[in-house]
Design goal:
The protein is mainly α. Helices cover 78% and strands 5% of the residues. The protein has two domains: 106 residues, no CATH class; 125 residues, Helix Hairpins (Orthogonal Bundle). Helix 1 packs antiparallel against helix 3 and helix 1 crosses helix 6. The radius of gyration is 39 Å and the shape is rod-shaped.
């Protein structure tokens, strides 16, 4: 069976019908607002904070290991001092006694150095623990906010996902009815428009996209529905107000019927 040849009016009706369906999908997504992005941002922030928290924990472990190592060095130095002191009681001359005394003095200095380092490490540990506590509190705070945002998003999605799926399916079906060249233009214009409007009616002598007056002769051409006319300022496809009003009513009824199924 040969495919029915579309008139320009048929094409305009099809492309505006698609616009109305897609605008309803946009409205659903607008209801979700910035929540999906907020959830993504919070997840990324929590990941960064968690990594920072883990790094601080690793630093604290390293400092505590250093403290433990210095304490062991002090014990070893103490044992050496005791050993050398005992040896001093059995020396045969002053030279040996002085040599042992120097070794004892060196070990005592090692103990003092270890004590100094232990104090420094302990101070750093306490400082790191304060930062860790703040980081942990920050992670918890952000996690609670994330849980709240996810709950809000899940509730909105559960309320609108069926409606969105129905409209997306209908949009895809309508898109198949449209000339490929016109559909590409529609998608390009829609993709570059903040409000997603690629097809707009002429209302009160002006384009619904730019609100800039359209010359009377151009308005007559648009109302004749004999050619696809683009707004010179916004680049949007223009249709007459009468067609827009008619299709608005038809599409509203169609969507209501679809969503009741």
């Amino acid at each position: 069976m040969a495919k029915k040849i579309q008139t320009v009016e048929d094409k305009l009706r099809s492309i505006y019908t698609l616009q109305l369906i897609d605008s309803n999908i946009d409205k659903i997504r607008t209801i979700r607002g910035e929540l999906p992005l907020e959830v993504e941002d919070l997840e990324a922030e929590i990941e960064g904070l968690t990594t920072r928290k883990e790094n601080i924990e690793t630093e604290i472990e390293s400092l505590e290991t250093n403290i433990s190592d210095r304490k062991n060095m002090m014990l070893e130095a103490g044992d050496i001092i005791e050993k050398y002191k005992k040896q001093q009681g059995n020396v045969r001359n002053n030279r040996e006694f002085d040599s042992l005394s120097k070794e004892i003095e060196f070990q005592e200095l090692e103990i003092q150095l270890c004590e100094k380092k232990i104090k420094e490490f302990k101070f750093k540990v306490e400082s790191k623990k304060e930062v860790l506590e703040e980081a942990s509190a920050r992670v918890q705070e952000k996690q609670e906010l994330l849980d709240q945002k996810k709950k809000e998003l899940d509730e909105i999605i559960s309320e609108t996902e069926n409606e969105e799926a129905v409209l997306i399916e209908k949009s895809e079906k309508e898109a198949k009815k449209i000339d490929e060249r016109l559909l590409r233009a529609y998608k390009r214009i829609r993709g570059g428009a903040k409000n997603g409007l690629a097809v707009v009616p002429v209302e009160r002598g002006a384009s619904g996209g730019s609100f800039i007056s359209i010359p009377p002769q151009r308005q007559i051409e648009i109302a004749a529905r004999k050619s696809i006319i683009y707004d010179e300022h916004s680049g949007r496809i223009l249709i007459d107000a009468e067609m827009a009003e008619e299709l608005n009513g038809e599409v509203d009824k169609m969507i209501s019927k679809l969503l009741k199924k």
